[in-house]
Prior knowledge:
The chain is α/β, with parallel strands linked by helices. The chain is built from 5 helices and 11 strands. The protein has one domain (2-187): FAD/NAD(P)-binding domain (3-Layer(bba) Sandwich), CATH 3.50.50. Helices cover 31% and strands 22% of the residues. The strands form 3 sheets. Strands 1, 2, 5, 6, 7, 8 and 11 form a 7-stranded mixed beta sheet that branches. A two-stranded antiparallel ribbon has the order 3-4. The chain has a two-stranded antiparallel sheet with strand order 9-10. The longest helix has 20 residues, at 151-170. It comes from Halobaculum marinum. Residues 3-108 form the FAD/NAD(P)-binding domain.
Amino acid sequence: MTDVAIVGGGPAGLTAALFAAKNGLDATVLDTDGTWMHKAHLFNYPGIGSQDGSVFLETLRDQVDAFGADRQQGVEATAVTETDDGFRVDTDDEAVEASYLVLATGAKRTLAEELGCAFDGDVVDVDVTMETSVEGAYATGAMVRAEEWQAVISAGDGAAAALNVLSKEKGEHYHDFDVPADADEVFGAMADE
Length: 193
Ligand SMILES: Cc1cc2nc3c(=O)[nH]c(=O)nc-3n(C[C@H](O)[C@H](O)[C@H](O)COP(=O)(O)OP(=O)(O)OC[C@H]3O[C@@H](n4cnc5c(N)ncnc54)[C@H](O)[C@@H]3O)c2cc1C
């Protein structure tokens, strides 16, 4: 049993994993590595001047791993269902049981459809926290949008989903704020000059 099961390891899924794991939740990511990032070159991701999409992805994967998420590459989610305690994600091997589910499968919407999530036309219907009509199940990235298919938007969706899960778990609105002293504690005080 994990806290958050995340299906898809592109910018949306990995960002959800990053925020969840960084803030103390167990997060499991299942990913088949078909992310569009392998075809992209980023000039429009804020804070990144110019970077190959696969290089960006490798950095993000390292970041997620460093915070302790369980990232399972090459594992396909074949079905998702509701259980008494949350959700079960089936694979060809072991199933993953989780309290919350984040779908981050790019433009693929089949799992959301099978789970019974409401749709708005062709896209999965979500609120501003990316929660679907199925409580505790979130949908992110291209599956919730007819356009606006950009890495930074997917990453924002994943962050919103994870922060909403964290707010539910902690019983109050949760903000993932760090300050320079936090970095000093981890890396040692760094002089700017
Ligand atoms: C040619 C091209 C150029 C682009 N250029 C830019 C650009 O310059 N700037 C920009 O911001 N964006 C660009 N994009 C778009 C960008 O790549 C996407 O917006 C971004 O990758 C979407 O992220 P995501 O996490 O929503 O989905 P994805 O990155 O598509 O990730 C979805 C992941 O889910 C996995 N998955 C799917 N189903 C399952 C399943 N059942 N089980 C397990 N895993 C599953 C897939 O294999 C994939 O790894 C470009 C896209 C293309 C195609």
